Amino acid sequence: MKKRFYLVFAFIIGVLMSGCTATLVPDQAVIIDQSRCCQLQPQSVEVSTEVVVEGLDRPWGFVFLPDDSILVTERPGSLRRIADGAVSEPLAGVPDVADINQGGLLDIVLDPDFDKTRQVFFTYAVDDGSGYGTAVARARLNLEANRLDNLETIFSSNIKSSGGRHFGSRLRFSSDKTLLVTLGDRGDPMRAQDPFDHAGSVIRINRDGSAPVDNPFADGKEGLPEIWSIGHRNPQGAAVHPLTGEYWTLSHGDAGGDEVNRPKAGLNFGWPIISYGTKYSGAGFPEGAAAPGYEQPVYYWDPSIAPSGLEFYVHDNPLIPEWNGSLMVGALAGRHLSRLSIQNGRVVREEQYFENEFGRIRDIRTGPDGALWMITDSSSGQLIRVTGR
Predict the structure, then answer these.
(1) Is 221 helix (H, G, I), strand (E, B) or coil?
(2) What per-residue confidence (pLDDT) applies to 250?
(3) CB 116, CB 133: distance < 8 Å
(4) What's the rounded Cα separation, in Å, for the pair 345 and 347?
(5) How many CA atoms lie within 13 A of 347 on its CB side?
(6) Do 143 and 149 form a contact (C-beta atoms < 8 A)?
(7) pTM for this one?
(8) What is the pLDDT of residues 18-30, one digit of tens each?
(9) How many CB atoms lie within 10 A of CB 306?
(10) Structure confidence at residue 35 (pLDDT)
């Protein structure tokens, strides 16, 4: 026991003296029992907040339109537009959603060619009679009529199941205009290890729902053609760096082990074989925190903060200059906003803001105005604008 103490102490001192650049510990003989890869740092920036809108019903995702108004999804099944602080009536044309526990109307993004197509893409929980799953739809936004037209479901997860947990559902377009979609394990962990099951994966599809020919399992022999990576528990955050095009995700752990990852083609991120957390039962994981064939997280939390919403705060004229380039993370259980400083693809510092000030932070976006915007997960959810002092 004394020998382990000195090993842990020496490692922590080394991390602190080196500027806390050691984000991973898979090659260490002793796996460090730490809540983060680095010591949590005090807030370095004073910021101001403004509640722009409140009274939203469990808002889940939002996106800015070219006119700077905002489309926001409400999990029970409504899509609304916010303009000049006013909230519209629900848009018509939204499909029926399975409003069950964590399921409902979830994320939303604009077509990369929105100015020409006027198309929006969104995820929702669907009930096909055999069970529930995650679906992706696209439709044409008709603001004049306050509705969606030409609705088309372009993807639906292949195995439906009972229960209302772990739908995943973050949408992001990559630089090549393919659509990356996160899918949760639906509360059945080993499904995330089956490449012929969409659950617990990131999928990559074209805008018509077809699988790109350069996907890792495009021929369907070793996995489903849509699958990009597997071994994810419930990724409810995703971000594409606007300058580098790198794709990052944010996934819930069990009692601990929330992860920031960088999914790449064909990789396995280990759930539920490895994890830096513990199970709700208190038990560990079959292979501990690391094992051959499974990818390591960029960063993790133990115990869990229940993360949701991931965004690179990058803007030509940022209203919080000290945050420019940071990776921002919303926390549901933690009820705070985390700022992760990135150097050479590694997290070197974490600061937490707004703890218990606004509640459960569900999604985050960089606004066209250079501010950081957030929504809170509540029956009276808020849209919040964050700027420097």
Answers:
(1) coil
(2) 98
(3) no
(4) 7
(5) 28
(6) no
(7) 0.91
(8) 333 323 333 332 2
(9) 18
(10) 37
Active-site pick, 166, 232, 252, 315: 166
**Range in 11-25, 47-61, 139-153, 192-206 the model is least confident about:** 11-25
- Please list, residue by residue across 50-71, b when 16 or more beta carbons sit within 10 angstroms of its beta carbon and e when fewer do: eeebeebebbbbbbbbeeeebb
The encoded tokens of residue 53 equal 């809108």
Cα angle 170, 172, 175; round to 5: 160
Is 241 an active-site residue?
A: no
Residue 180's φ and ψ, nearest 5 degrees, are: -100, 130
**Nearest residue to 74 via CA among 28, 122, 115, 35:** 122
pLDDT at 1: 29
Q: Residue 137: beta bridge partners?
A: 122, 153
- Identify the helix (H) or strand (E) that includes residue 91: none
The pLDDT tens digits of the residues spanning 197-253 come to 999 999 999 999 999 999 999 999 999 999 999 999 999 999 999 999 999 999 999
Please, which residues bridge with residue 372 across strands? 366, 386
Residue 78 CA to residue 72 CA, distance in Å, equals 8
Alpha-carbon distances, residue 59 vs 132, 212, 370 (angstroms): 20, 31, 22
- Cβ atoms of residues 260 and 249 within 8 Å: yes
Structure tokens at 201: 């994966």
d(CA 38, CA 349): 6
326 pairs with which residues across the strands?
A: 313
CA torsion, points 112, 372, 332, 286, in degrees to nearest 10? Answer: 60
**Is residue 160 helix, strand or coil?**
coil
What DSSP character marks residue 4? H
Q: By three-state DSSP, how is residue 7 classified?
A: helix
Alpha-carbon span 82 to 259, nearest angstrom: 32
Burial 345-380 (b: 16+ CB within 10 A, else e): ebbbbbbbbbeeebbbbbbbbbbeebbbbbbbbbee
In this predicted model, what pLDDT tens digit does every residue of 92-108 receive, in sequence order?
Answer: 999 999 999 999 999 99
Taking a C-beta distance cutoff of 8 angstroms, is the pair 229, 239 a contact?
no
